[in-house]
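ingest -> fold -> write
write: protein_1
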Amino acid sequence: MQATRSIEEQIIQTFKGGFRGKLITPEHRDYDEYRSLYNGMIDKRPALIARCTGVADVMAAVNFGRNNHLHTAIRGGGHNGPGLGSCDGGLVIDLSQMKGVRVDPETKTVRVEAGCTTGDLDHATHAFGLAVPTGIISSTGISGLTLGGGHGYLSRKFGLTIDNLLEADIVLADGSFVTVNSRQHSDLFWAIRGGGGNFGVVTGFVFELHPVSMVYAGPVAWKLEDARHIMKVYREFLPDAPTELSAFLGLKTVLSTPPFPEEFWGEKICLIMFCYNGTEKEDQNAIKPLLEKLPKPIFNWLQILPYPALQAMFDPLYPKGYQWYWKGDFVTELSDEVIEKHLENAAKLPSELSLMHLYPIDGAVHRVDPTETAWIRRDATWSMVIAGIDPDPNKADDLKQWSQNYWEALSPFNDNGAYINFMMEEGEERIKAFYGTNYSRLVEIKRKYDSENFFRINQNIKP
């Protein structure tokens, strides 16, 4: 199978003269490695991959793509579910080599280049006992996570990733470079906080840091037969739990591999993943009131560990190249009827890796006005993801069907719209539903900064 479009060698050679990074064409011996995506279900063949070394390379690549009328995709960490960091027959601007991180412990800020993963960021900030609120898997790219909003273990206390964004550097569709913050290009700064990659190539971020070092964290799991009771207790416990505590709930399967207890391999479970960021004396007391109301778990792996270790805990379970199909929604209420729908569909998990997670997004997330950022869903209690996952390509159809059926069973009870980082390519109406009344403002900003919709391989806001 060939890329759907070739680019003349003479044009590429001209581009190369002003580009310091590596240019990868389909003839390159490592082309398949460089074009591969996190989601093995997606297979795209770009005509050219421009692996940028810095901002000047990004500017050159944007100009090249625009001047040659190429479909152009932007790839940071490459963790995008629907594979929107690549394209067929066009140009991929690959930022993954831009890995600089600089921590300023005096101002408690960090400057991060766009190719960093959250693991790169955590490694640098942990040395200073500080962290940025990000996601839950350290292989996630900081760029896509941030531009979509970013929620994880620290969100209840410190807000979304975008709530901690102070500034960003962006290459626009015309190839120009701007710095955006609350004073400079404030409209664009508003838009990138949840508006995705619609407005330009973000080459660097400046984040506020918070005191995070050792955390009391880990999974606690029960048999699925106990899930009904656990979910009811959990929904009552969460609103009054200290915001230092994160507790996301999952319906999943014990993997048939160490370090999981062999006697429970393949067992369907209800799991709560805890993270408490506070003093050692406080941590157990924060979780104890919940655990006291629940049955004895099949395993309890709560322990004190470094925050980066928690962030990397799931990485070995979900390596690059597995089949993924996910669906999401925002959830305000976990009613008895909704719980029954969850249990009915979780009983049909199509593989050991498939799951449903409810991530709490209350606390500090709710204290930001819905109009303050493009990410409007400040009233939800959870962000839900249903993910069909397996290494076997032959299971792709089963994963899709299960995820779709599960989502359809729950969607009548959920809020309209899903977190864009938990969406496949689901159409314009789903995108509009996520942004709600903020959508029209995003369209105006899109027209101002990218009227030709050059940046359209994303969850696209059409100008």
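write: protein_2
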Amino acid sequence: MAELDRTPASDLWKQLRRFTPARIGLGRVGASLPTQPLLAFDLAHAQARDAVHAPFDAQSLARELRSSGFAEPVIVSSRARDRMEYLLRPDLGRTLDEASRSRLRDLAESAQPCDLAIVVADGLSAMAPARHAVPLLREFLALQTAQPSMRDLSKNVTVIVAKQARVALGDEIGEVLGAPVVIVLIGERPGLSSPDSLGLYLTWAPRIGRTDAERNCISNIRPEGLPYADAARRLLYLLAEAHRLRLSGVALKDLSEDASRSLP
């Protein structure tokens, strides 16, 4: 703050803008904004709108996940038939279509019991999982491999790529697979400074009807927000605690920062 105290008033806002992507100290021309900040705002607004409507390449993402060491991902769809119906009917994005449900039911009957279901979904920004899901999961795999106890908790991982999905779709997926825990990586609602923010939701004993209070969220995962390594560390902590306490949500506190400080 001493540095800011010595800054001339004309440069003060410029100095403060180094610490936040928020739009502060933009100035004014009469009753309006200066041209440059106004154009920047319009661009950010257009990028956020484009992110909502951007197509989701599920096949490409599945190939990336497979090449990163995961078993063959299963591609599923919600009951929302297209993007417009997805946006107008959030309820349809929370339920699997019949073909997808049948595919997962067959998988659950033929494969070994699922220890962990990982759902990578488009959500409200397909750009977010396309850019950030694989790097995050690579960090998670590396941390998990380094801890034998965590490897034992999730030997059989089923990876799902979900189209036109809402967060709660993971509850039905986890229930059909019989997974004790489901992790949903999903594109968050785009903002004016973050059109590609990835959210992560962890739910213990997933089943249809779970509420948001029964899951844990790690938000704003991207290089400009929460780095992959930090998000992976928090995820590993929450996953271990969910197994230990057999719960998730408001009753499961993220004390990962305290745990990391206590390490030698």
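write: annotation protein_2
Residues 139 and 231 are 9 Å apart (CA to CA).
The chain has one domain: 52-261.
pipeline exit 0
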